[in-house]
Amino acid sequence: MNLTDKNPNYKEIYNLVKDLFEATEHFYHGPFDETYYSLRVYETCKEIITELEQEVSTVVILTASILHDIGKTKTDPVKVFTPLGKTDDAMKEWKRHPKLGVPIAKKILTEMGHSEEFIEKVCYLIENHDNRRDEIKNKSIELQILQDADLIADCGFAGFIRPFLYGSKFSRQIIKTIKYLQTEINRVEEDGLLNLNVSKTIAKRKIELEKRLIKEISSDIDSDLL
Ligand SMILES: [Fe+2]
């Protein structure tokens, strides 16, 4: 590890990532606002690391957390989105983003003066961040943290506001979005997607907040008109 590896300039990396997302058609506002979600994954990684109390490569995790979804900027929007939502085979194009992110991250980190060894470690996390459960064997603790943070970042306030943003982008009424929230079960908690016990505790906390928010807003549509 060289000196830059030991002290990554997270803010500079984030600003570069932000610029790339802001230059896209779909990832700078609305439900796919990656300037928000990249920030949330970065902060959630820090939260997990603090509560984990185990020696991990924090610099590698945090660098990867900011860059992990940058490959989305290279996906083809026509294959993912329609004016009313996602295309039927959006997932196929969506699944390409971890791999597409690797060369972008490599370029950014090389230009910033990071070592090859550091870049390889960061890129392993980026490339595998969507390989959940047994899709990849012997996950490093760093990968487990990033994967969990990626899921938890969508819980709590984020999980509450995202459906409203989706509604505003894809022509869904607020009443319908509130009803959607009332019926939606948070899959992060349900099907054991999280790797670490500490992540399960953090997720539980955030999902409780989400449920409270849904309960509060539900009273808004408690009306004899509906
Ligand atoms: Fe991703």
Based on secondary structure, the structural category is mainly alpha
Mean pLDDT: 93
Q: What is the N-to-C order of secondary-structure elements (H for helix, E for strand)?
A: HHHHHEEHHHHHHHH
**CATH fold-level label:** Hypothetical protein af1432
**What low-confidence regions span 5 or more consecutive residues with pLDDT below 50?**
none
Molecules bound to protein: fe (ii) ion
Please identify the top-level CATH class.
Answer: Mainly Alpha
Total number of helical segments? 13
Helix content: 55-70%
Sketch the major β-sheet: 2 strands, antiparallel
Per CATH, the architecture is Orthogonal Bundle
The tally of strands reads 2
Strands of the widest sheet, in order across it, are 1-2
CATH homologous superfamily label: Hypothetical protein af1432
User: How many structural domains?
Assistant: 1
Q: Note the gap between the termini.
A: 62 Å
Shape: globular
- Beta content comes to under 5%
Tell me what the structure shows.
This protein has 226 residues and is mainly alpha-helical. The protein has one domain (3-216): Hypothetical protein af1432 (Orthogonal Bundle). 64% of the residues lie in helices and 2% in strands. It is built from 13 helices and two strands; from the N terminus they run H-H-H-H-H-E-E-H-H-H-H-H-H-H-H. The protein has helices at residues 3-6, 10-22, 34-52, 58-67, 77-80, 90-94, 97-111, 116-128, 141-152, 157-169, 174-183, 187-190, 197-218; strands at residues 81-82, 85-86. The protein has a two-stranded antiparallel ribbon. It starts with a helix and ends in an 8-residue tail after the last helix. The chain binds fe (ii) ion.
